[in-house]
Amino acid sequence: MTQGLRERKKQQTRQLIAETAHRLFADRGFEAVTVAEVARAADVSEGTVFNYFRTKEDLFYGQMETFEAELVEAVRNRPRGISALAAFRDFVLESAEGLADEERADVIETAARVIGASRALQARERELVVQYTDALADVLASETKSNARSVESWSVANALMGVQRALVAHVRAEVLAGRRGPNLARTVKSQGRRAFARLDRGLGSYAVTPPRRRTTP
Known about the structure:
Low-confidence stretches: none
CATH architecture of the largest domain: Orthogonal Bundle
CATH superfamily of the largest domain: Tetracycline Repressor, domain 2
Distance between the termini: 48 Å
Radius of gyration: 20 Å
Oligomer: single chain
Number of domains: 2
CATH class of the largest domain: Mainly Alpha
């Protein structure tokens, strides 16, 4: 078996477990479903579930963790000459375009209801926000040659993440209120642009890596 095929099978198994868990959580609520039940429904062992997901909460938040990690990487790997704020803003606003898909709104509505009924999920979400805010602060501190997680870099990271999390809350509220489709995407992007423009007045020149110098032939 090639490495590529092995990795695809792992990804398929992970996706199967996550989709099974989400279906059970949507039907019965997060608290009422056990990991053992997820394993049986996915036709895998309980140990296999924990090979892919460290905790029951991670079964629910796998996509969020992927998104937050990609968001931090978008800042870390941005082109030279681009500010941290611009890279962060562009990634968030581009992701909002997917809200035009009404099926995505259905998924968000279900997730919002499950989260709203579970203190455990709410606590885990807060933990993840702190984790990735700290990761972003470390990136910014490294680029600006500050002390690790300095007050300045930590404050900037929290400001940026604050906009993103405010948009998440806004999306959930809008979807629960019945809003869908392209209008939802436009509204969210408009709100995001306004919030990031406000930050840009103070942070637009922060952590801008200088363009590479051209070498003469």
